[in-house]
Write a structure and sequence with these properties.
The protein has two helices and 18 strands. By secondary structure, it is an alpha+beta fold. It has two domains: 97 residues, no CATH class; 124 residues, no CATH class. The strands form six sheets. Strands 5, 6, 9, 13, 14, 15 and 16 form a seven-stranded antiparallel sheet that branches.
Length: 237
């Protein structure tokens, strides 16, 4: 396979990855706390050893948008939204994870959990317990939960420290590879949920662009294959 074919294949492969990411974004446009993803194309340069180097486009790095989503009023006592940078911390079977989805509820034991049953953690990394007789629940800007004015616990609001990488594990959960620090500038709103930050119209427009670019690349690959076939046939005549 010649250099032109390799270059075309790497471009087509990157466009296919981007199309999958865009489709996932659109599918999660209504998912609470979802963060839009994108593909970053980078240039890969390799020396041939016998002439000019070969430059190829690789679309293999995913980028997550941390833009604030719309805050939607629900009126729920245990629905919380973060305004600003930061994440809630929850406990999973694989360890602590970060999320912007604040749709919580007390379980049968009185522990505050997500809809998936993962326990919500406080600032010290411990589960949050809601007494069965708790009334007039309120939350302060710093995430302090109170019942009838008496503090119960404080939601753990964290953000990645400089150099820490966030790895998406599913639609709304992230694993931090590195250190975390308190999200001191973030504030919590009770009775609100943060909507997905997906720009649905922009994603549909990008999907059309990627589809056209892929079709153009496919046409180029077919023409190049025909050219090589004709050249080979002429050589052996």
């Amino acid at each position: 396979m010649d250099n032109t074919s390799y270059t075309t294949l790497t471009r087509q492969s990157g466009l296919m990855r981007e199309m999958r990411v865009i489709a996932n974004n659109i599918a999660n446009a209504a998912t609470t706390g979802f963060r839009q993803e994108g593909i970053i194309f980078s240039e890969y340069v390799s020396g041939t050893g016998n002439g000019p180097s070969v430059s190829m486009a690789l679309g293999n790095v995913r980028n997550t948008s941390m833009e604030q989503g719309t805050l939607t009023s629900t009126g729920g006592r245990f629905d919380f939204a973060i305004e600003g940078d930061g994440f809630f911390q929850v406990e999973t079977a694989d360890g602590p994870r970060l999320t912007r989805s604040g749709a919580f509820t007390p379980n049968a034991e009185g522990e505050l959990v997500t809809h998936a049953g993962n326990r919500v953690l406080d600032v010290g990394g411990a589960p949050i317990f809601i007494p069965p007789d708790a009334a007039n629940m309120s939350v302060g800007n710093d995430g302090t939960l109170s019942s009838d004015g008496l503090p119960l616990a404080q939601l753990g609001l964290l953000k990645p420290a400089e150099g820490t990488q966030l790895i998406r594990e599913d639609g709304v959960m992230f694993r931090a590879e590195g250190e975390l620090e308190p999200a001191e500038q973030a504030s919590v709103l009770q009775g609100f949920l943060e909507s997905s930050n997906v720009n649905a119209i922009g994603q549909v427009a990008r999907m059309i662009e990627v589809q056209r670019a892929y079709e153009l690349g496919q046409s180029f690959a077919e023409n190049e294959n025909e050219r090589l076939k004709n050249a080979t046939t002429a050589f052996f005549k």
